[in-house]
Amino acid sequence: MARWSYPRPSPTEITSHRAWMSRRRFLAASSVAMGGMMGQGVRPAMAEGLQTRPGPFQAEEKPTPLTDVTHYNNFYEFGLGKSDPSTYASAFRPRPWTLSVEGLVAHPRVWDIDRLMAAMTLEERLYRMRCVEAWSMVFPWDGFALANLLKLAEPLGNARYVAFESVLRPEQMPGQQPGLDSLPWPYVEGLRIDEAMHPLTFLAVGLYGQTLPNQNGAPVRLVVPWKYGFKGIKSITRIRLVEKMPPTTWNRMNALEYGFFANVNPDVDHPRWSQATERVIGGGGFFGGGRKRTLMFNGYGEQVAGLYSQMDLRTYF
Ligand SMILES: Nc1nc2c(c(=O)[nH]1)N[C@H]1C(S)=C(S)[C@@H](COP(=O)(O)O)O[C@H]1N2
Ligand SMILES: [Mo]
């Protein structure tokens, strides 16, 4: 039995940015009133029936409006343009869905996505996101630490990397139709095992308190907030613990421009553009937006710099 419900939203109940902000103010006020109850994971039910608890990592910036988060996407399975995913992803069916955890683990398992979500403690984490094309967003994800899933599987001693694979479904993903040759399918990514086990590394199943929209990687996608956006593989079907560094899609396409590590680094430019500043998406109007200086490790250096202390990040970009 699921311990909580996570219904699919109808278009009319998608949380607006404003509704989410006012709910947060309500929660902040009620958490003072409720005192220690919050610490035990008790929280008023969300209007949408989603039960997550505030996670340990919360960015300070003003969140990007939901319409920008869902209408400015990279998801080549649905086309090359930033607005293609919101246009073409509606026919995609993210349920039923299985996620296989396999390879060098003591307990391989094929999870049903809803059983997996019921087995994990769901948290909301407001993460800074930074794309290699030099744009950025900040918004609340719902999901769980990847480490919690990997610990259940018990990686073996020789597991040094984690390989991820997206779904292959040309009948629902127009960008995978034969003949287009945009990317080699399925999309694949990888992390070193210490990166994968880091508490910041997150598997997202929702955002803004709602089931993850198709164009953002439903039903489950990776979020690694100190790395460029392309590491955040969407619609994952397979997680495999391996001994050797696995191939990654963008590195296969263009190894000179996209490395395996892809740590946000304002000092190492992409060959075709600077990575020193970023364009804030959805930040127009009164609250500014425009550009800002990019922070090393996207501002998460305190947490993750130690992972790379022995590495030259110009060579291992
Ligand atoms: N399966 C898959 N995952 C993917 C991509 C893709 O094309 N296919 N694009 C990547 C890139 S380049 C970026 S910037 C992020 C964008 O995630 P968002 O649309 O949720 O912002 O997804 C990443 N994950
Ligand atoms: Mo990207």
Walk me through the structure.
By secondary structure, the chain is α+β, with helices and mostly antiparallel strands. The chain has one domain: Alpha-Beta Complex (Sulfite Oxidase, Chain A, domain 2), CATH 3.90.420.10. The protein has helices at about 15-35, 65-70, 85-90, 115-120, 145-155, 195, 250-255, 300-305, and strands spanning about 55-60, 100-105, 110, 125-130, 135-145, 160-165, 190, 200-205, 210, 220-225, 235-240, 275-280, 290-295. Strands 1, 4, 5, 8, 9, 10, 12 and 13 form an eight-stranded mixed β-sheet that branches. It starts with 16 loop residues before the first helix and ends in a 13-residue tail after the last helix. Ligand MTE binds near residues 73, 233 and 234.
Helical amount among residues, as a percent range? 10-25%
- Unreliable stretches (pLDDT < 50, length at least 5) are 1-9, 36-48
Largest sheet: 8 strands, mixed
Distance between the termini: 44 Å
Number of strands: 13
CATH topology annotation: Sulfite Oxidase, Chain A, domain 2
What number of domains? 1
Q: Which range does the strand content fall in?
A: 15-25%
Q: What small molecules accompany the polymer chains?
A: ligand MTE, molybdenum atom
* Broad shape: globular
Average pLDDT, all residues: 89
Question: In the CATH hierarchy, what is the architecture at level 2?
Answer: Alpha-Beta Complex
Question: Strand pairing plus helix content: what structural class?
Answer: alpha+beta
Count every helix, treating DSSP H or I runs of 4 or more residues as helices.
8
Look at the structure and give the CATH class: Alpha Beta
Radius of gyration from the alpha-carbon trace, in angstroms: 19 Å
SSE series: HEHHEEHEEHEEHEEEEHEEH
CATH superfamily: Oxidoreductase, molybdopterin-binding domain
Catalytic activity: L-methionyl-[protein] + a quinone + H2O = L-methionyl-(R)-S-oxide-[protein] + a quinol; L-methionyl-[protein] + a quinone + H2O = L-methionyl-(S)-S-oxide-[protein] + a quinol
Family: Belongs to the MsrP family.
EC number: 1.8.5.-
Protein name: Protein-methionine-sulfoxide reductase catalytic subunit MsrP
